Amino acid sequence: MTHSFLSVQLQKGAHLFLYVSHTILIPSNQKLQINYGGTIMANYTKTTIGKENRIELHEKLSLTGAEISINELPAGANVPFVHSHKENEEIYGILSGNGKAIIDGEEISLSTGDWLKIAPAAKRQFFASDISGITYICIQVKENSLEHFTAEDAVID
Amino acid sequence: MTHSFLSVQLQKGAHLFLYVSHTILIPSNQKLQINYGGTIMANYTKTTIGKENRIELHEKLSLTGAEISINELPAGANVPFVHSHKENEEIYGILSGNGKAIIDGEEISLSTGDWLKIAPAAKRQFFASDISGITYICIQVKENSLEHFTAEDAVID
Predict the structure, then answer these.
(1) Residue A29 included in any domain
(2) For the whole prediction, is pTM greater than 0.80?
(3) Which of A80, A143, B92, B102 could form a disulfide with B116 if both were Cys (CB 3.0 to 4.6 A apart)?
(4) What is the mean predicted confidence (pLDDT) over A74-103?
(5) Looking at the structure, do residues A87 and A13 belong to the same domain, yes or no?
(6) Is the ipTM of this complex over 0.95?
């Protein structure tokens, strides 16, 4: 997919900026067909993960819309830096154990079954509790990228 | 964000179709600034899930780049339909139990720790095994929507 800006000079000195994500030139006697995901490839990929401290699935599964990692912090450990993101929102799900996140200075306690969405700009850091490790999934997606989902995007056979 | 098609009639009967995802009208003496995720809102949302058969997180967490569901099929049960997608790739992770997927007629056995990415067009159906239920996460994202991730998208404090 090619992304570009198209700038159109209007009267009175205004500019109309169009952020163009798809450009298709077709003769007028052909039907317009847009195939998302038209790359020829197998329709699925599969991997199996074990007990590693951090697994990243983007390469393993040839993901195109997300990075997904499974992370394990032992008791007393923490991610050794604070970070934010440029474009991506992150969704964290606690699979087991206990710990906390500090988001923009606010402390949020976390245990199994908790889910968090964190906006790109927020500064975040994750910690296991002192007496229990924590295992969590982190899903990284581009903010505002989802257009339709479930019933609106599904085709039932 | 507003999405629309702009059709421009060219000479000789051709059409130029522009898929416009951002349109910004600014005076020519102002600097163009595009802020992804510029909506003013809390920088995170949190929810806790329990033992329900299916939980959808999009509304609960105000997700903008994914729909995420946690699904549980009891032993012997299956999703009662075959489906594919228009735009979205799906990533499935088996959190516990055993079962199988049938993808475009191919049977894939599934157990804890297995992860699958399924392309939009693939026809899929999920089954618990006859002797064990299966719990899985399903992550729906727009195919080809992720531009940068992890080191390229992160800002370390």
Answers:
(1) yes
(2) no
(3) B92
(4) 96
(5) no
(6) no
